[in-house]
């Protein structure tokens, strides 16, 4: 199955495999500036993998998912 995520990426990363994008710098996303990348790096977030595995992202995703089921 092909996935086209080029609209989420800077031109330099379009066409790369998902395995390659895991180690892409966060600035490789469209709309993420070098300045934002530097601020995130201060939090230890340099790559897509770092961001995806950041505990605060996991917690936020869990809260959003569970909120949908809350009565």
What's the Cα radius of gyration? 14 Å
* Number of helical elements: 4
Q: Note poorly predicted spans.
A: none
Measured as a percent range, the helix fraction is: 40-55%
Largest sheet: none
- Counting DSSP E segments of at least 2 residues, the number of strands comes to 0
Estimate what percentage of residues fall within beta strands. under 5%
Mean residue pLDDT: 94
Structural class: mainly alpha
- Terminal residue distance: 37 Å
Write up what this structure looks like.
The relative contact order is 0.12. With 71 residues, the protein is mostly helical. It is globular, with a radius of gyration of 14 Å. It has one domain. The mean pLDDT is 94. The chain has four helices and no strands.
Summary of the model, kept short:
By secondary structure, the protein is mainly α. Helix content is 44%, strand content 0%. The protein has helices at 18-21, 34-41, 48-53, 55-67.
Keywords:
71 residues; globular; 44% helix; 4 helices; mainly alpha
Topology:
Elements: H1 18-21, H2 34-41, H3 48-53, H4 55-67
């Amino acid at each position: 199955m092909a996935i086209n995520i080029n609209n989420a990426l800077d031109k330099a990363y379009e066409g790369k495999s998902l395995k390659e994008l895991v180690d892409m710098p966060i600035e490789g996303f469209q709309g993420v500036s070098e300045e934002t990348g530097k601020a995130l790096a201060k939090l230890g977030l340099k790559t897509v993998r770092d961001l995806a595995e950041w505990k605060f992202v996991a917690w936020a995703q869990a809260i959003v998912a569970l909120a949908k089921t809350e009565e």
